[in-house]
Write a structure and sequence with these properties.
alpha/beta, seven-stranded parallel sheet, about 45% helix, globular
Length: about 240
């Protein structure tokens, strides 16, 4: 198998942690994110494994940009056998009372539509080779809505869980598997977008990005005959 992966949201948080873990384990990884400076920081953190990484800035909510990204990445890394959809965002003004349509659309297009576009960009190649793994970083908000998460985020994550289930329902016979990872609170920069960001003491008891990366690694490293369809991880 060609160990080449695409990781969205690779400029910070869970996406960065998964990308670094993959590179440490011999994978060639395309780092996808909106901000070039954040991707370069991930490259720096990769240290001696940075040569296995390719930084490609891309707004995954734009179909034409995703198409161009997929073409460029495949040309450099060859066949992509793993797609990790870890890009995600939220907004401080997230309640139904405050949420604007513009922010609602931005969240859904980034958290859900972006994952769909990346999936459709790389799925045909996986289908042709009859092999591929997709990891979708969802949220435990896809199990139960909460005011803490806000409706736009909840809608996007419910949808992403449904997309994961649809992949397994339709593509299992084509040798493709998908895993939805549903973390609880993680100490990542996304917390700073909460209306009242949690203090340092509260963050100490939360998950770390590396914890979620290990969950992804389990789903990725299992034999092709096995699929972790859904994995919920919460702080102890």
């Amino acid at each position: 198998m060609n160990n080449s992966a695409v990781v969205t949201g690779a400029g910070s948080g869970v996406g960065r942690a998964i990308a670094l873990l993959l590179a440490q384990n011999g994978w060639r990884v395309a780092l996808i994110g909106r901000r070039e400076d954040s991707l370069k920081e991930t490259m720096t953190l990769a240290k001696e494994t940075a040569s296995r990484c390719l930084a490609y800035p891309c707004d995954i909510s734009k179909p034409e940009l995703v198409t161009a990204m997929a073409k460029a990445v495949s040309k450099t890394l060859g066949d992509i056998s793993l797609l990790v959809n870890a890009a995600g965002t939220n907004t401080p003004a997230r309640s139904l009372r405050e949420l604007s349509f513009e922010k609602y659309r931005e969240l859904v297009e980034t958290n859900l539509t972006g994952a769909y576009l990346c999936l459709q960009a790389f799925l045909p190649g996986m289908r042709e080779r009859r092999s591929g793994t997709i990891i979708n970083i969802v949220s435990d908000s896809a199990k139960q809505a909460s005011a803490k998460a806000g409706p736009a985020y909840v809608v996007s994550k419910f949808g992403l869980l449904g997309l994961t289930q649809s992949i397994n329902a339709e593509e299992r016979a084509n040798g493709i598997r998908a895993c939805a990872i549903l973390p609880g609170d993680i100490d990542t920069p996304l917390l700073d977008k909460r209306p009242a960001p949690p203090p340092a003491d509260a963050r100490k008891s939360m998950l770390r990005s590396e914890d979620v990366a290990q969950c992804a690694w389990l789903a990725i490293s299992l034999p092709d005959r096995a699929v972790v369809e859904e994995l919920v991880i919460r702080p102890r």
